[in-house]
Design goal:
heterodimer; A: alpha+beta; Gyrase A, domain 2; 6-stranded antiparallel sheet; 5-stranded antiparallel sheet; 4 helices; elongated; disordered N terminus; B: alpha+beta; Ubiquitin-like (UB roll); FAD/NAD(P)-binding domain; 6 domains; 7-stranded mixed sheet; 52 strands
Chain lengths: ~180, ~1000
Amino acid sequence: MSMEISSLTPGVLVDTPAARVAVQPAAGRLSLRARKAALPALGAALGVSLPTRIGQRAAGGGIEAICLGPDEWTILTPADAVAGLLAAGAGVDHPHSLVDISARELTLRIQGPRAADLLTLACPRDIDTIPVGEGRRTVFDGATVVLWRDGENSFRMDIWNSFAPHLARLMGIGARELAAEPA
Amino acid sequence: MSQYRVPGRGRVDLSRPVDFTFDGRSYRGAQGDSVASALLANGVHLMGRSFKYHRPRGAIAAGSEEPNALIGTSRGAGRFEPNTRATMQEIWQGLETTSQNKFPSLKWDVGAVNDAAYMLFSAGFYYKTFMWPKSFWNKVYEPFIRAAAGLGTAPTEADPDQYASRYLHCDLLIVGAGPAGLAAARAAMAEGLRIVIVDENAEPGGSLLSEPQARIDGLPAWDWLDDELAALKAAGVRIMTRTTAIGYYHYNMLALCERVTDHLPSLPADTPRERMWRVRARQVVLAQGALEKPLVFHGNDRPGVMLAGAAQTYLNRYGVKVGNAPVVVTSHDSAWYAGFDLQEAGARVQAIVDTRPHVRDDLMDQARALGIPVRLSHTVTATSGRLRVSGVRVNPVSGAAVGAGQQITCDALLMSGGWTPSLHLFSHTQGKLAWDDDLTTFLPHETREACVIAGAGRGLWGIEAALTDGAARGREVAAALGHPGNPAAVSVENDRPGSGVSQKELPTDRNPGRAKAFVDYQNDVTAKDLRLAVREGMRSIEHVKRYTTNGMATDQGKMSNINGLNIAADALGRPAPQVGLTTFRPPYTPTTFGAFAGYQRGAHFEVTRKTPIDPWAEAHGAVFEPVGQWRRARYFPQPGEDMDTAVRRECRQTRESVGIFDASTLGKIEVVGPDAVTFMERMYTNPWAKLGVGRCRYGLLLGDDGYIRDDGVIGRMAEGRFHVTTTTGGAARVMNMMEDYLQTEWPDLDVWLTSTTEQWSTIALNGPNAAKLLAPLVEGVELTEDAFPHMACIECTVAGMPARLFRVSFTGEIGFEVNVPAPLGRKLWEILWDAGQQYGIVAYGTEAMHVLRAEKGYIIVGQDTDGTVTPYDAGMGWAVGKKKPDFVGKRGLARPDLAAKGRKQLVGLLTEDRSKLEEGAQIVFDPNQPIPMKMVGHVTSSYHSDAAGRPIALALVEGGHDRMGEVVHIPMPDRTIAAKITGTVFVDPENTRLKI
């Protein structure tokens, strides 16, 4: 039986001249679902102005929000702020759903001169069309992920826990493969 | 240096010799050689044996269309590759190659007896020969055919190489880096446009590599090429070599296979052997050029007989004379230049034989000036030589009359039947072809893809024509991409435009019925086979193809299709366009399984989802089983235990004290919103409106057809918040089904779904000591019958962790499911494990879980149901809220056949001889009825049960609910087992054990 990791802990997974992939420390994460009319009230309660175009992001007060669907957002927050945000959301008098998903997934940070190329190993989406400062829900190696583009060659990828080792293995193969390519 | 290497010609680097072996013998080539060019430089033409007749064969082409020169290549253990085209494999120091289809040796091959017996192996040979006696098929014919079939030897060792894949998005993909492709790139390129040129050869240039005599814009062709490539690269155009566009799929998706290391003498670390590129291109230019057709005459397959264009490539690109005394036979102008080039390189061309009565004056003049004899209006009727052509018999033709043959001695025979555009990728787009009468070939016509064809690929001939057309097509796609494109005017000197006529098999003065005039070299199909197929009634070209196997070899008829069509059309007496062309399918050239598999092999074959508790199970010796994408602990054997023993122990300890089980894989969905209860009422069969907060209920989910789809326990955590659980395998499917209804049927409901499967680690504790074990760790609720009864749920703290605690039982014992945030699961498990030692806690796996639930008659969706079982069939009518106005499947359940008597219903079975039944075994009422018996159901679950004191089974049986106590029969290979129909609850039907 393989003794491969079945869960990942924060730290560097692979570091080559092409790309460096690291598991990020645990963070707070909420899934917010609501109709448009509820957005101003929810934004005020959560302390972030919720973007309305899919893929758009907003940040403020230590939290980040990304719009993933016409009625769907993921909110990132420090772990210790989750309870406060859940309570703040509960006070909003508009129908909505706010669910703690902090424990559901983890985040990889992917950086380095070939970071964007590394994603092309298994992401069918055209990486070039994701503007810096935006994000997309997409697929990597068969698993649904949320990809955040923080810089030309700096990304974060949110992955459900049980898919992460599989994806991380490919990241390792890919980072070495890219580093071995003749210039 | 060998007498066939021509100094000063070619692009190989003679200062860098490369040694390799072929059939154990060492040869020396030069850096840049292919195996074929290097062997030809050593005077070796014999490179293989044909598939059916084992006839000696040499390279006939210089590119990927090569049908004959298939070799094995090897670089050590596991790295043997059969059927490599010697024309495409680059040599490297130490490369080992071997010929195929020969025994004991390439020069003396036993299988060649087939050649002598060739009259037996006519078209449809298999169909005619192996028809009778019927009983011979399995034992004699099929093993014989299988042993004889196949090219080369399949490797037996695991492939140690890594394969890779990537996605690539571009604005313009150009297939083919010849003059048309390069010109298209130059004309289309613009700031910000992503342009990719792909070429299967080791270096870009296409036909320019074979035509150094041309001068483009005042520069020698190769200098122009260098400048052009540099300019394109500087402009950001990506040029990919050794990369074959193998398939063209919907919406401009193309697959490219890149050969990364096959040309390297040593394998670099971390580098895949091949890489599959999945390309999405906004526009595509196909500039793949044209393929030369052989002429069809008796003996046209002898080593040394090859395409004239190939000979020109060997000379000009590789610096190799394919012979010192060649003869050219042609029906197209292009072959004349091959003769001229060879003559100028020092060969003595014995004759240029043209089937046409008239040829351009300048060609005649040049032949005369070079001293090459010319014979017009001639046919070729035979070749001689055993392992190498040594002579050719040519005859004058006058009208239909073929004159007397004359022998010409030669050591190579260069033929050209004209050129046919490479239509393969275009055909993959389901593009329509149009017949061109002048060129007597099909040309690309219309396609629904964003795709244009440039150059020889649409019948244009000559470098200037290709450059001009490429530029025009480049501007066309630039316009489609919103750019003006770049002007281009080129002038080409020493261009070699030309034309020709198309031929069927060449006329002969001998019996054409005895001619071995090959059309498909790889499958050994002759012109006579095609005519025979038509005589025997084949009318469609698709039937002719299958009857003769013409075009069905690994080269997919790159050389044979048009010749085959011309001959079949002639035999049918119909024009070629009415006969039509067979379909080309991907891949364009044979592609390794490795390239298709990419990274998906070995440990990375498929995602294996593991829970946070999985490492504990692994450390404790669990045996795992896959459940959907998950791997789950099946049982935990102790030293010396087999599965049965381990499972019995796990069941016993659970029922006697307490068992712990990892239920984290259960699907979980958080249903939140003011309309959550309305949504639940509509989705599930059960009523939810009156379920209080802090209570949970078993839920049954149907499809709209009324059949059971999924089930699970659902807790109401708050007025507008449900914690739904689903089966492990059904999680994603249920989520999708719910979203589907929500988005399409009930968009008005204020309720939202969030997958929380992986938010929670779920640990089940079951057994009489479960509450005793858990209670001291729980804060927020007392685990008593009053404070936390069966089917209660609460948010509380367990061992200091935030938890959702459910009191549920899938075993019939006192049971709890503790949900904690996923990463905490392992820690909680270990705390419970340690605390449970005083009770003799046992970790149990899915197998014991199955037994424990079956003893209580709890179904497993997908095992005891198969998509045709209603709640009533399963004996679960109690779960259907009959007063509810609607729910998914309510209408389906009302269909007459779903309410009819005699449906298969879930019952218990107890065997009379106390043996354990086999799951899946069929059930009959009367064991004495004649075969085939009427089968009335099957066993769905079957286990040894210590709690019941005997083996138990669940089964679906026709009208089973009305047959309690009746005996049914289960015929097995060795005997028939009698079993009594019972209820499905085998243990504690009063549920007394659930009480704390």
